[in-house]
Amino acid sequence: MVIECESSRAGAAQAGELLAHIGRLRADADLMDGYARRLRAIAATLGTCSTAPEGSRPALERQAAACASAATRLRAAAEALLAHARADRPTRGVSVA
Fold first, then answer.
1. pTM for the full predicted model
2. Fewer Cβ neighbours under 10 Å: the N or C end of the chain?
3. What are 40-70's pLDDT values in tens digits?
4. pLDDT tens digit string along 70-94?
C-alpha cells in the first residue's frame, strides 16, 4: 500500500509538471503572436516611409510569418502534451485541464 501511495504522489507531481509545461508553451505561443503583430505593424509603417531601406519591409514580413508559424507549432505541442497527459492520467486524484 505504501508503494501505491508513493506512486500516486509521483504521478501527481509529474502531471503537475506537465501541466506547468503546457502553460508555458501556451504563454510562449501568445508572445510569438504578439511579436508577429508588432513586426507587421512596423512593416506597415515602413511601407509609408520613403527613407526606409528597400528590403526592410519584406524582411519584417518574413520574420512576422516565422513568429506566427512558431506560435502555431507551440500551440500544437501544448495540445499534444495535453492529450498525452489525459491519456496517462491516474484514474483518480489528479485533474488534467
1. 0.76
2. N
3. 999 999 989 989 898 999 999 999 999 999 9
4. 999 999 999 999 998 888 765 555 5
CA distance 33 to 3: 45
Q: Measuring CA to CA, how many Å separate 16 from each of 3, 30, 63, 72, 85?
A: 20, 21, 34, 24, 10
Picking from 56, 37, 62, 38, the residue whose alpha carbon sits closest to that of residue 48 is 56
The three-state DSSP-derived secondary structure of the chain is CHHHHHHHHHHHHHHHHHHHHHHHHHHHHHHHHHHHHHHHHHHHHHHCCCCCCCCHHHHHHHHHHHHHHHHHHHHHHHHHHHHHHHHHCCCCCCCCC
